[in-house]
């Protein structure tokens, strides 16, 4: 790759507050339809904007990005000169983003991820569109790829549903509404709540009063998350070329992710309640510090993992996690959802006599808590771990209402085994596995000999599953 | 290859610490009065400024056998060893003061953490950077 300069918008972070300070009065005046006022506010902020522009231009002129001898170097700064060097061989994934707001300026965002690291997790560069694509191509070269997974029709709908995240969308929407309210002085949240109350009144025709507001809020965020998911998965396709895995998609923010297969640390099947209903499981990959949770690589049909093994034969024939329910402590799995269910059941019973208005709401919460109990029972019979001769670890664990089936491909992992005295007497323990993705996986109530064998195997880097199971 | 910190290299963090002492004294002057501010500044200058010069006496950076070894500490000596294959990136910082003193700050990022090396000459920093990043990591 020839030498290039960063895009001027790379330095937007340094001047964003100044720009916001200048833009907010103008927007406020425009919202009040006071054009002369807006013009005056623009003139007042002109000196600050001009200063910011000069600073950006100077920083842009002195910036430099180059790839020479397998090292990416990024230099920026005038007074405080910072030159960073990143080794190409330790880059596990790159992400090329074309956000809508950068498109008119001909810029694109390039993220670099590494094989591991605690302080250096990712590097963000804003480059001219062509240069960003060239750098991504040079770092992880890609030939002609055939899409192994490109959902369409009903499959697309299922993929959209599985990629939707109501909690994350809700959080980001509320945070964004708060920020906008603070900046422009208008209570955007109150406006949205007004709309939601109308929806709540509509739903109150079919549902009890307490439940209708909750249903309106959940429905609102669910629809929002579906729209976000539909935009993210627009023209989604995943393919592979040699050691490089690529998946791309998106309408407003077109994104392309390239992952070095040899750097994949873990593959996770997330079995959420929705995935159980659809009988499809989204697969998420982690490669060192690259750990996206917004978009799965593909969805795997229950009992039919042909597409997955075609795309990633490295995941073929995973070891089956060993689980011994008789040795486990049911209390460890059931005390939290169980106690919550009992509390809610008691409240529900009292509410039906004293306050029937909130009984439906408590009923819904009780149903959720009982679903948690069911998942706890499932964890009792499913949660476990195993290793194979290739040094791969298979872990199965449950959190809240979701079960995770993880296949750890990396040998760069730290295992810690902990057990209370009663657990030690019963021959069980908790196993914590730390990975380069800074993610700690916890498997509860594992047989102590198995955990010790896994820990020993982790040090060696490989193990023999058959002998291990005999020991257990 | 072993790299050490030059006298001018030690002067760079010493001047940073002197500036920090003066800043702390300024804050005390703003919140309290002149006397304690002078005391805080002097205490800072006396206790902090000699530290980089003491540290320099036993500070060494070596790249050998595929590992980076950084030995530091005057009273309590600590040696950090990290494999060169695990180095993900190196960042070099050059400040205006560093330009005058021919001293740079280097941050070495690896899969396990990061190490900061302050006070190497510009040429040493370049050589160390090349030794850490120019070799292809074994796959």
Describe this structure in words.
The complex is a heterodimer of chains A (472) and B (139). With 472 residues, chain A is α+β, with helices and mostly antiparallel strands. Among the domains of chain A are: 8-139, Roll (PH-domain like), CATH 2.30.29; 154-232, no CATH class; 329-380. In chain A, 45% of the residues lie in helices and 25% in strands. A 7-stranded antiparallel β-sheet of chain A has the order 6-5-4-10-9-8-7. Chain A has a 6-stranded antiparallel β-sheet with strand order 13-12-11-16-15-14, sandwiched between helices. The N and C termini of chain A lie far apart (55 Å). Chain B has a single domain, classed as PH-domain like, CATH 2.30.29. Chain B has helices spanning 7-31, 34-48, 50-57, 96-101, 122-133, and strands at 2-3, 60-64, 67-72, 78-83, 87-94, 104-110, 113-120. In chain B, the strands form 2 sheets. Chain B has a 4-stranded antiparallel β-sheet, covered by helices on one side. In chain B, strands 5-6-7 form a 3-stranded antiparallel β-sheet. In chain B, helix 1 (7-31) runs antiparallel to helix 2 (34-48) and helix 1 (7-31) packs antiparallel against helix 3. Chain B is elongated and about 55 Å long. The mean pLDDT of chain B is 89. At the A-B interface, strand 3 of A face strand 5 of B. Strand 3 of chain A pairs antiparallel with strand 5 (87-94) of chain B.
